[in-house]
Design goal:
The chain is mainly α.
Length: about 250
């Protein structure tokens, strides 16, 4: 389960040279080509929603609105990159994590803020460095039923730990926040290992996160930008399940 972490950390000097190679930026741009039309449509659809959200919330909280706008668009680019097995997802995820975590801390939504920092430290940076998340990314599937058990136990352990930690704070949504964060951590581990089963977790997590940010909005914090983003995440999850280019149908071609 944790072999990719071990591999990247063991070969950190060698793998870190990857981001300094010649024409690296051009390679990143090329990773945005060849996606399905539905993916490009989602990207455009999200941009329109984000602009609407930015216009509506700018006068109330201009800086927070701009940061949420940037983070919302980058986060959607990240998840669409994942579903298309594109190397752009690491950088898009890292930059969006910084933006969304900032908005989360300001809005008092500490679960989402911690979730994004977790993505940054334990997923995005590793995907940027991991050669298996750079060229001709291949999806893998569980080969044994025991793998379901291992990840389920990991999820349960993470939920217990997060529930205990959040219960010691003034978080008004301990159950939902801890559950959402445990799913995010489990999904991240599945993603780093390039397991297609990650999308079962991402789909449930998208629905829970929409509920989380809706509750945050009703309490007077946050804005519609991230609710829009996670709604697009859900549509993207469906793309990964059912598209002929998705993780459950074909391997990525060079």
């Amino acid at each position: 389960m944790f072999s990719r972490y071990v591999d990247v950390l063991s070969n950190l000097p060698q793998y870190s040279k990857n981001i300094f190679r010649r024409n690296y930026f051009g390679w990143l741009i090329s990773q945005c080509r060849g996606w399905g039309r539905f993916s490009y449509g989602l990207l455009l659809f999200n941009l329109v929603l984000q602009i609407i959200s930015l216009v509506q919330s700018f006068n109330t909280a201009p800086i927070q609105s701009i940061v949420a706008f940037i983070g919302g668009n980058l986060s959607v680019a990240c998840v669409i990159g994942i579903s298309n097995r594109s190397g752009i997802q690491g950088w898009a995820g890292a930059l969006s994590a910084v933006c969304i975590a900032s908005v989360g801390f300001v809005a008092g939504n500490y679960a989402t803020a911690c979730e994004q920092l977790g993505y940054l430290l334990f997923l995005d940076l590793f995907c940027i460095l991991d050669p298996k998340w750079n060229d001709n990314i291949q999806a893998e599937k569980f080969e044994k039923n025991s793998e379901w058990l291992y990840y389920a136990l990991f999820f349960a352990g993470a939920w217990v730990v997060f529930y205990y930690l959040f219960s010691m704070t003034n978080d008004p949504r301990v159950f939902l926040d801890s559950l959402n964060l445990a799913m995010a951590v489990t999904g991240s581990l599945l993603e780093l290992n390039r397991k297609r089963e990650q999308y079962f977790v991402w789909t449930i997590a998208s629905l829970f996160t929409i509920a989380l940010w809706t509750q945050t909005m009703l309490q007077g914090d946050g804005n519609f930008s991230l609710i829009f983003s996670y709604s697009v995440f859900f549509l993207n999850d469906m793309y990964a399940f059912f598209s002929t280019r998705g993780w459950f149908r074909t391997a990525k071609t060079k």
